[in-house]
Amino acid sequence: MTLLSIENLSKRFSSGGRDIAALKDVSLTIADGKTLGLAGASGSGKSTLARILMRLIPPDAGTVRFEDEDWLTLSGSDLRRRRAKIQMVFQDVLGAFNPRATVASVLDDPLRIHAIVPKAERPKEIAALLDRVGLPASYVARSIREVSGGQRQRIAIARAIATRPSLIVFDEAVSALDVSIRGKILELLVELQEERGIAYLFVSHDLAVLRAVSHRIAVMDAGRLVESGPAEQMIENPQSQAARALIAAVPRLVIEPTRDSAHDV
Ligand SMILES: Nc1ncnc2c1ncn2[C@@H]1O[C@H](COP(=O)(O)OP(=O)(O)O)[C@@H](O)[C@H]1O
Ligand SMILES: [Mg+2]
């Protein structure tokens, strides 16, 4: 079943007297419980698409249907109620959180704002969320700046799943991490998806990362979606120059298994 469907999305920015077409007529769909990898070089429009989905900026044209609703026209209490259903994890978690905030407050906020569990049950829920992302319950008392980059990404993932979303948007969420930590986080994300049926839009310039998590991959180039298909097929038989350039940037890509071949989905 289709969870999200984007049609003919366009967005221009003007800055310093220049007019930039960040998105040109982009259409794509994401299936329930599946991962769409969104690939593309820096500046190709990936984050603009993610920000439009999160309702951080409006598009100039186009529509988004999410769970059979017109997502971009939802407003007021309807939007507040539905917002919990799409969560986002950024690359720069320090920038997204107040560095003095405690882990407890970072996880308590979404539970309270979206009334996920009654107040008395929130501490237990926070402990369960930490446990699920592989962190000890004692972390509740730490401040965000006291934990490592990989641990901060785990807390960001815990916060994202706290509201029981049906879609999580990851924008370069593992790009700043060391390769060994990155691999562990990608494994956690695959497990969480299989356990909870959450769909992912996984934005990355790195096809090795996308290959580990994606069922399908779409490729952006200068604001246009130039190619999309099953992950394995896209990597083995790229159709666009943009896809070939991304593949060439990862020398070991072809000998590592894709998610579908590794997990037999
Ligand atoms: N707020 C903005 N003002 C002006 N230009 C922007 C803004 N946001 C993005 N852009 C431009 O839009 C294009 C796409 O950017 P972005 O979506 O961030 O690409 P990506 O995430 O693929 O690197 C780039 O040329 C970028 O400079
Ligand atoms: Mg970006």
TrEMBL record:
<dbReference type="GO" id="GO:0005524">
    <property type="term" value="F:ATP binding"/>
</dbReference>
<keyword id="KW-0067">ATP-binding</keyword>
<keyword id="KW-0813">Transport</keyword>
<dbReference type="InterPro" id="IPR003593">
    <property type="entry name" value="AAA+_ATPase"/>
</dbReference>
<protein>
    <submittedName>
        <fullName>ATP-binding cassette domain-containing protein</fullName>
    </submittedName>
</protein>
<dbReference type="InterPro" id="IPR003439">
    <property type="entry name" value="ABC_transporter-like_ATP-bd"/>
</dbReference>
<comment type="similarity">
    <text>Belongs to the ABC transporter superfamily.</text>
</comment>
<dbReference type="InterPro" id="IPR017871">
    <property type="entry name" value="ABC_transporter-like_CS"/>
</dbReference>
<dbReference type="Pfam" id="PF00005">
    <property type="entry name" value="ABC_tran"/>
</dbReference>
<dbReference type="InterPro" id="IPR027417">
    <property type="entry name" value="P-loop_NTPase"/>
</dbReference>
<dbReference type="InterPro" id="IPR050319">
    <property type="entry name" value="ABC_transp_ATP-bind"/>
</dbReference>
<feature type="domain" description="ABC transporter">
    <location>
        <begin position="4"/>
        <end position="247"/>
    </location>
</feature>
<keyword id="KW-0547">Nucleotide-binding</keyword>
